[in-house]
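Before the break, one more example. Copy the sequence into your notebook; we will annotate it together after we see the structure.
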Amino acid sequence: MTHREHQDDDQETDLRTAPDKKREAESETALPPARPRPWRWYGAILATLIVLGGGGWWLYQQLTHVVVTDARVAADIVAMSSRVPGWVTVLEVTDGDAAQRGRVLIQIDDRESRLRVEALDAQLAGIARRREEIEARIALTDRQTQSRITAKQAAVRAAEARLAAAAAQLDLARQENDRAEKLAPSGAINRARLDQTRAALETAKQQTLSAQADLENARAALAEAEAARGELTVLRTQLAELGPEEQRLRAQKAQAELDLEDRTIVMPFDGVVDRVFVDKGEYVTPGQRLLMVHDPERVRVEANVKETDIRFFRPGKSVMITVDALPGRRFEGRVTRVGQSATSEFALLPNPNPSGNFTKITQRLPVRIAVQQDGGELKPGMMVELEARADD
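Here is what the structure looks like once it is written out:
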């Protein structure tokens, strides 16, 4: 078949189908328009209800609740410092470790402190030995001097008795001599008798002088014995001086023990270690910060609340807390303290407005909220949001 024949056949086919196409087009235009499907209406109504419900809930929340987004978790973070100098010999913890109360965190070289304590213990032991020695000398001196004084007192009484006897003999010899001297001129007695009475009188005088001397010697010996007892006073004074010296040594020992104790840094409470600032082998100085710790069970929330909303955060008010780091979790807190001054009062550069130009800015007051938690989920520095009911 030639190309010309093919073209003729196509033209005949087009002529035959043209009326059919015309009839189909007329039939289509004669049909009624299609109706929208019902599920589209239902979807539109449901979407409208969701939007209206969400908007209503948002409006209800705005009217009945106060939300504060400028809030953070806070805690009493304790910065532990060194009171003594030395090298760090033991480092038991690192950042983030949990530690119980009393656990050793850092140990500083304590060799010199231990030697100082031992030296003071030796001095205190020497004080005790000296006290025992002086007390023994006091007891010995007391016994010796007491017996010596007793003996000298007896000697004095004996000398006094001999002196009294000698004095009596002297009186008798003087009386006999006086009678002899009176009778001698008349020849009543002979010369020999007179000489005897005179000799007896002289002898009695000498005996009296001797007895007087013996009494003085006895008294002097007694005074010497009594003076020897004065050594007891000296010994007791030395014993009393040991008291202040011992007290001074004990104070030095207590200071040395305190220095030794300060070389062991222990955990002050059950908590966690936030930051360690030293390494093992590092030399630290007094006052140098070593580490920071806090108690995870004693955290709180601190917020700066607008002055227009502060009336909804009175002490004792219950608030709900949501944490950015814990989606879906809600914590209940209670307002414990409301600041008495706005935060602007403590600004480094306060604005006294001397020029008279004024722009009213809502001020903020600090609010502290207590919150209970288990497991330390709330960590200092976390951002939180507060929600309080405005109709309470």
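The first strand starts at residue 65 and ends at 75. Residues 111-261 form a domain with the Helix Hairpins fold (CATH 1.10.287.1490). Try to locate both features in your own notes.
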